[in-house]
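Fold this: Probable ATP-dependent DNA helicase HFM1
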Amino acid sequence: KFRSIFSEFPFFNYVQSKALDDVLYTNKNFVACAPTGSGKTVLFELAIIRLLMETQEPWRDVKAVYMAPIKALCSQCYDSWSKKFGPLGLTCKELTGDTEIDDLFEIHDSHIILTTPEKWDSMTRKWKDNSLLQLVRLFLIDEVHVVKDATRGATLEVVVSRMKAVNSYRTSQNPEGGVTMRLVAVSATIPNICDIADWLSNGSEPASYLSMDESHRPVKLRKVVLGFPCSGTQTEFKFDLSLNYKMANIIQTYSDQKPTLVFCSTRKGAQQSAAVLAKDARFIMSFEHKQRLMKYANSILDSKLRDLMMLGVGYHHAGVDLSDRKLVEEAFTLGDLPVLFTTRTLAMGVNLPAHLVVIKSTMQYVAGSCEEYSEADILQMIGRAGRPQFDTSATAVIMTKVHTREKYMKLMNGIEITESSLHSHLVEHLNAEIVLQTISDVNMALDWIRSTFLYIRALKNPSHYGFSANLDRYGIEAKLQELCLKTLNSLSAIDLITMDEDINIKPTEAGRLMARYCVAFETVQLFTKVTGSETLPDLVDLVSKSKEFRDVQLRVNEKKTLNTLNRDKNRATIRFPLEGKIKTSEMKVNCLIQAQLSSISIQDFGLTQETAKIFRIGMRISKCLSEFLTQQSKTGFCAALSSLILAKCFRAKLWENSPFVSKQMEKIGLTLSTAMVNAGLTSFSKIEQTNPRELELILNRHPPFGNQIRESVVHLPKYDINLEQLPRYSSTTAEIVVKVTLQNQAQLLSRRTAPDHHYVSLIIGNSENHVVILHKLKDSLLLKSGSWTKKVDVPKASKGNEISVNLISSEYVGLDIQLKFPVYYSAAAQNLETEIPQSKTDNLVGQRAQHSHCSETQKTSSAKQDINAESYSASKRQCNHFCKNKNLCAHDCCKVGVAVGQKRSANHESSFSSYLEDLRNRSDVLAQTPVKRLKIKMSEEPLSVSMKRFAYKPRETLPSGSCETFVSSLCSSSRSAHAGNGYKSADMELTAEHYAELPDVVCLEDFDRDKSPSSLQIPSVTFDLGNEWDDWRDFDDENLLNASETS
């Protein structure tokens, strides 16, 4: 039934045959120690088959977990096992990302889970409230010797110890059930395999183990260590460079014209070595071989790599484009590429065996300094020598300095003992166990340590862990307890745990966050230094200093790109530029975070890859930071708000005010989003209002793409905030009613774009930087009720009575609402005659607009006064006259300016009378002008006036008398005419005789004498000017016609 799984080979090799009985016919825990390339993966397959043989079909509740230290190994097994176990009805699930929610659901339906220690650690930190882990029946550990790795070994050790605890917990809960978990581990050749077997015991007896030395390797390996002279003055770089010129000779001597793999310490070193070799050596290749290489070269994007491929040399590292890497791997696997230069990441990941493996220099660059390769790395690289399907022998060459040659000779033959590295990472893992309640007092902490590999090795080699060599078992236990207490005090110092006098330990909320988000202790120490007034750039800087980014290196060839992103007059640069040049890895992380959030494309492929990694980690850290700050009562409003915004920015990979909101939609990347921004679609509301066909035209896509995008936007939640102050005044607190409404509740019931766990955070702060209220509102709650209301007491602040109200989405940029709201207290209320403020926001979706629409519910008559001169003084503008000297010209408007008309609301009465009222108000403001004095005085009732009265009449010749007497007589005659003619009766019709009696010259003084309001009545003319008449402009004097021209 299961023979098809092993169809690739006719029989098992020696190692597999020796392990077969223990793995396939017993349920004991098992550890195999064998050289690389001896087919250890088959042992895992046999263990899975044993599990299936024991379980009745259908295998619904069968769960096996495979854990490998490298994602690439998980991917390799996933591809292989999906094909092998798929036909038997088993599903595999690769679990190596940093996602959380989806994984739990997907695991439920999978039978074989492939994961890394870090990922499984984060999953199992919640195991007590997760029944899923109770179903794990088989736990497979690949490369268990990685337990001694300084950075990753501790996680592997803790996860295995935790799985042992899961098993004992399950057994104690259900002793009759008989369901236990089996542990099967494999490792490279290590001398103290018995210690690993002791550690992986099932409680009553140690695991059975199989140890095979190099003699049982399927392909015999010849090991060569070459020592090269290095003077004291020569730097590591110089020495590394000198080895490039010895490479051609070594390949010629040891390769037998078969594929050669050369490991270099840096990416640049790999490229330089390849270039030197291509110049120095010429490979003898047939015409067909050259044709095949030419075919590969033509598909390669990197121009340098393309040229080298034609000469039979390639390079491969994480900075090479993914498609190029795949082509290089294919060419090398098929034997078409004679020599491949690579970095150690290839040794840990892709299985590319070669006949000859050369390790060029045993030094590597870690965090800016040189250090020796770890033993595990060296073994992994050597393990790539030998291709079982092609060769019977292989060669491994180590190129090192003369004085370290002896060390590597020993390493190749007698292997160093594997030790634990948990003691140097105890603080994070101890906190995680306290949160899980595995540890609740100091004695339990010691019990937990007894279940680890650290305890087993500390008893055998105490000096490695800083203990005295002549201590007995009790002395070592006392030292371990002391180490525990020291670690617990460190955690207690920054309130991650609480300890009482009876040494009982309890986790705090901050400690739970640290464990849940797998954040380093040093990073949490940074969080505790936040003062409360930090802005967004301050928090970006804080996140980029996290311990998790320590392994990010600043390379020389990246500096130019990073400095261009930071400051460049000709290109788009980051939002908060850093001072000076990019000099540290912290500055690099900061710059890359900002570049991604600003949607600036990064041309360097290596930097793009690092940015993706930074965001995976940064998403976790920023989320932890925002929860850490918001759950602490003393945190300032500014820092809490900035942290919420930053966590959302990391999630959306956009700044909170970014115009690229469309990038958050499915199927839209940076290119299409840029096209939408160029078309002016910078907010969700604008996209919603655009015709789908127009969207397709902008994006160069076919229907129904436009409909899909628009539908996605329509079904995003749209929020609205309403604030109202209750008329119960106090001098110390004000009562505000906050109402959050989901505007498109009906639409969202049928379909939602946002995920189910989407929520908004309502955070209100006052002018003293204190948080008034912070509340999470889930969409699911708003969907049921449509709105959410809460009464909030706002204490009086000393600096001002305005509060800042913010509604921040957890995942989407462009849904936030931010507004300011004035609050009134009893002293202020008396002056305002019980004026109550209200605020209502129209949610401009996609705009972080400042809304401050305040309307009054109770208004006194004093609020409806006419606009006075004081209110106009603040809102004047210059007139449109082009006078050279505005102080000397005759226009009064040039001296005093023109009042700007007030915008009218839509329901304002639009009539000629209101226009005249406006005009009259303006007139009151202006100084006395000839036009003003010429106003026609009218009597109480409107008068029907014939226009003939104002007809033109030729002027009489002046008499020869004095001018003064003539003017005075005219003035007197005009007064008598004014008194006697035409103004006695309202209905009186003017006749020709009256016109004859009218004077030719009117004395202007007369108009000034009568100042009574009745003389300036507004005529009842009511022709409508329409709503658009809301802004009075100056009259254009030059275009006015003279009366004489129209006669």
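The chain has 42 helices and 29 strands. The chain has a mean pLDDT of 79.
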